[in-house]
Amino acid sequence: MSEISDFGQIVFVVGAGFSLALLGRAVTERLAIPAAGLFLLAAAAVSDLVPELADEVSFVTVERIGVVALIVILFDGGLDIGWRRFRASAVPILSLGLLGTFATAGLVAASAHYVLGLSWITSGLLGAAIAPTDPAVTFSVLGGREIRGRTGTILKGESGANDPVGIALMIGMIELATSDDGSFWTVVEEFAIEMVAGAAVGIAGAAALVPVLRRLPLPSPALYPLRMLAAAGVVYGAATLVHGSGFLAVFVAGILLGDRALPHREEVDGVLSSLGSLAEIVMFVALGLTVDLTEVLDSDSWWHGLVLAALLGFLIRPLVVVPLLLPVRLDRGERLFVAWSGLKGAVPILLAALAVIGGVDDSAEIYDVVFVVVLFSVLVQGTLLPVVARRLGVPLDQS
User: Fold this and answer.
1) 3-state SS, residue 82
2) Side-chain-side CA neighbours of residue 219 (13 Å)
3) DSSP 145
């Protein structure tokens, strides 16, 4: 009886948490406040008030939640973009996703080293963690409105591309930081293997899934979204088995499946979109519970994070994005909007957790700094995003 009672308490807490997450989304949409930032801050405050709750959430738990959340978010993002839209904007997506990620990571690392006086290894890890962007936060902040034209596709595609790039870069940086014989070529080799193998598995996985999804009917329409989720899990797992990027694999597979006529497509898209949105909030709550606000405020992490967030949002990202978008047929307002919209979310959280799990030096400070950067990005940049869109004349449609 005691075991049943204990498990019942767990079910109650999980159910209450999901209910509050859904209620919070409804409230924050009316107030035009980014839900993710509020959940992040609220969870951090709760962890300080109830230390026992924080003890139940480990960095490994954050990593696992992050992996599951990103599988759903990236697969859904790929399906939403589709091959035709991706092909039309492939140049800006790939340039921002690849060159933009490396340039951002490098400039953040240089800023952390020369401005904040951190070591090159710690600075490099911070650069790799903070470089990726998050479209789920961007579009939730816009309150369900879709960005017309190529701008929305570029933002979604950039994030889908730079998430796997940032993760592969971070894994290489962790190996460099924890290995006695590590070198720059270790990072390059790890990155190349992850990208090539991940892309190959994504392409092969999509080709194998099309006949299965079309020709094998299921007894209930409710099962089709579950089959698609299972397919994403298989693609991710297959990529990791060959040392590839599972995240790139599910994103590529989603893009290649996006324009295919599949049974019960509307139900599948609706369920995946809802799960992705909920997974994002769960990720922010998990991060908040592992952060000690008192420790952040008593250390240098808070001002380190604010300095990097300000440099990243107001200087580094515009310096990286605007030149890369010059060859693209966009007006000035659209280019500036893309530069402002590099919001941070679940991926920096996951990468900071990987640094802690990997046992790198200064990992606790890296985690706290990432917390501050993500909080600033979501609450400050995110809150101003609809205003910036209106001021720059970026067209929005109600989705």
Assistant:
1) helix
2) 0
3) E
